[in-house]
Amino acid sequence: MERLTWGMIGGGEGSQIGPAHRLGSAVDGEFSFAAAALDHRPDAGRAYARSLGIAGDRAYGDWKEMLAGESGRADRVDLVTVATPNATHFGIARAFLEAGFDVLVEKPMTITVEEAETLVRLSRETGRICAVNYGYTGYPLVRQMRGMVARGDLGQVRLVMATFAHGHHADAADADNPRVRWRYDPATAGISAQFADCGIHALHMASFVTGQEVERLSADLASCVPGRVLEDDALVAFRMNGGAVGRLWTSSVAVGRQHGLELQVYGERGGLAWAQEQPNQLRWTPLGERTQIVERGDAGMLPEAAAASRVTVGHAEGMPLAFANIYRDLARAIRARKAGEPAPPALYPTAEDGLRSMAAIAAVAASGQAEGVWLDARPPMFR
Ligand code: NAI
């Protein structure tokens, strides 16, 4: 089977998320890495792309050069990943969608709800994929949780507790570090810092696993490090359209916590608990029984979870392989379209998911400013 080709914008040398995309896209041999504009400094981007094996004429200085170069090629890249700081996502994704490329955009998909609506419309009009990288939904045991909820193992879901609290931006002396600064600067991050950076992963996972969408929310925001305009800690209460009650805590000042993404789902007949730092074990407690550990790779996993698992039980499987599942889902969708076949069921997060997050961010920011007033968190487009 011929490989698809892949291009990347952002994710340059030393970036946080670039390596996980390069690993994830390469695992299954679905994509070959063919073009890139990796850095905001053109020369550094070109040099790093060359060092990663990209041909000189496809190691671009910036995304506009890449758009022009790739648009003019018969063998243009099949998928473009946008892994730049948030404020640039919309302009880049819109331009590539308009030119007929499929795109995978890092979260948050855009800065405003209106921009996100534009990407949803564009994706629908062009028939091109606009996916959003909620990459943790690629974990086998996250897909197991989703399948168990859908199968009815928990009965009606009553309560979801979503957490994404780390301690890596707690040091006031580090506030000027360029990789930290853009996250708290409204010009580059938008109206929210920590909730938009991490909280939306947890909120999206709550929806992904329960199959319910967030309807209303109330937020309590705090800026713990002096001088920060945007929040570095948030507590959000929410309600979902299937009746589930939601609680979410996100923080970047919880010293000692590392990654800190966790999801707990409690239903009438049992409870599930999973944590990103121990992704190969899922705790399942049926009502009135002892807690069981579901091991990734063990017999009896649901088919969608087993299909997402790559190595045998007992061996560590981690985050780049979760990203690999998103890339494999995208490869299948792109191949189906190229073959004129119907799209396979999609587990990758879509532009609609990205839009829902943007509406939640807007509601969190507004509620936080209004002392926690409850607000509609649905995108106007879906009300
Ligand atoms: P970073 O600051 O570590 O790296 C950003 C990279 O983008 C740098 O290499 C920089 O030179 C490059 N860049 C900046 N502007 C550019 C432009 N106009 N054209 C080309 N390259 C450009 O940032 P990080 O942490 O890697 O975040 C990037 C994006 O990924 C953000 O949107 C962030 O929210 C998201 N992210 C997602 C994660 C996930 O788990 N899905 C985890 C971490 C970040």
TrEMBL record:
| Name by which UniProt lists this protein | Putative dehydrogenase
Q: Which residues form the Gfo/Idh/MocA-like oxidoreductase N-terminal domain?
A: 6-134
UniProt-listed InterPro entries:
Gfo/Idh/MocA-like_OxRdtase_N (IPR000683), Gfo/Idh/MocA_oxidoreduct (IPR051317), GFO_IDH_MocA-like_dom (IPR055170), NAD(P)-bd_dom_sf (IPR036291)
Source organism lineage? Answer: Bacteria, Pseudomonadati, Pseudomonadota, Alphaproteobacteria, Rhodobacterales
| Location of the GFO/IDH/MocA-like oxidoreductase domain | 142-272
Which Pfam family would be a valid example here?
A: GFO_IDH_MocA_C3
What organism does the record attribute this protein to? Silicimonas algicola
* GO-annotated molecular function: nucleotide binding
